[in-house]
Write a structure and sequence with these properties.
Number of helices: 11
Structural class: mainly alpha
Helix content: over 70%
Number of domains: 1
Largest sheet: none
Strand content: under 5%
Low-confidence stretches: none
Order of helices and strands: HHHHHHHHHHH
Distance between the termini: 43 Å
Length: 299
């Protein structure tokens, strides 16, 4: 029974938490601007609407263009099975943190390849930026994971993001939180790294790579991106959430995800998008913070 409850809670999180988080971000930004904003469930409505539409494919594209959205969504769903959303992940083994990073990299790779397959210069430009910035974001993510892995004594996400006390742990936890939050913004194309609401091809990164996708393919991409945001936010919440029973853990996770969405909305409302040449500096700062956290753990 406990296993069924865990599977059911994780399934509900994977399906409904990502679009609701995006809706809370939009609501927060609208409230700061003095507007009513769209409904919280608007991203879910958009995904359902896209699933009912057809897709149009250019004659210049190949099978890779159609495979990209499916593989990217499958990779993120597989990563969700490794994340301890409520209490324990559905799948856990020593080294699953490394697989988690590689699954995110796989999703990014097929998205970039699908964008290049269109033969569009605009999508190629976005793919180039995505690859360049990810080369800075991935070291920050890996170093933060290394700090948590050394502290917990294992390479499983469940142990790495379990409650851990001690004065030395507080400083390393804060540094890991900061670096992971910057990685969250970069990996999910949020301000100040990218503006998901922009329609100017010359300034877009992730959005420009999916311009030629439509219908179910675009729905897969959108839900995969939303799920990726929710998974990284779940890791942040798990890092500060105390140990508690399943029901309390699910409730705390939901509140934590909502709070993270509000923080992201406030960040996007209080600052502008960085110039492209400034984005690497932000990511290098995240790398430095993760490195300092690792050094504190090694003391």
């Amino acid at each position: 029974m406990e296993t069924l409850k865990l599977v059911a809670s994780d399934l509900l999180m994977v399906v409904f938490a990502p679009p609701i988080m995006l809706g809370i971000i939009a609501k927060t930004k609208a409230a700061v601007a003095g507007r009513k904003g769209p409904p919280v469930l608007q991203p879910l409505y958009d995904t359902i609407k896209l699933l009912g539409k057809g897709a149009v494919y250019s004659k210049t594209t190949t099978w890779m263009f159609r495979l990209g959205p499916v593989v990217s969504l499958a990779a993120v769903i597989a990563a969700a099975a490794l994340v301890p959303l409520a209490r324990a992940p559905l799948i856990s083994f020593n080294g699953d943190a490394i697989l988690f990073v590689y699954l995110f990299a796989l999703g990014r790779f097929v998205t970039i390849t699908a964008a290049l397959d269109t033969g569009s210069s605009f999508e190629g430009m976005g793919a180039s930026r995505e690859a360049a910035f990810s080369s800075f974001a991935e070291p920050a993510l890996i170093l933060a994971f290394a700090s948590l892995a050394y502290r917990s004594g294992g390479l499983t996400l469940a142990r790495m993001f379990a409650p851990y006390g001690g004065p030395s742990a507080a400083a390393s936890t804060v540094l890991a939180l900061g670096s992971l939050f910057v990685v969250l913004l970069a990996e999910n194309s949020r301000i100040p790294v990218d503006d998901p609401n922009t329609h100017l091809e010359l300034t877009m990164i992730h959005e420009v790579m999916v311009l030629d996708h439509g219908g179910p393919d675009l729905a897969f991409i959108l839900h995969g991106a939303e799920l990726k945001l929710a998974l990284m936010a779940s890791l942040l919440v798990r890092l500060v959430m105390p140990e508690m029973p399943l029901v309390g853990a699910v409730g705390s996770l939901i509140l934590g995800l909502a709070a993270t969405a509000v923080v992201i909305g406030l960040v996007e409302s209080s600052m502008a998008r960085l110039r492209l040449i400034r984005v690497p500096q932000l990511l290098v700062a995240a790398i430095c913070a993760a490195t300092f956290g690792l050094l504190l753990t090694l003391r």
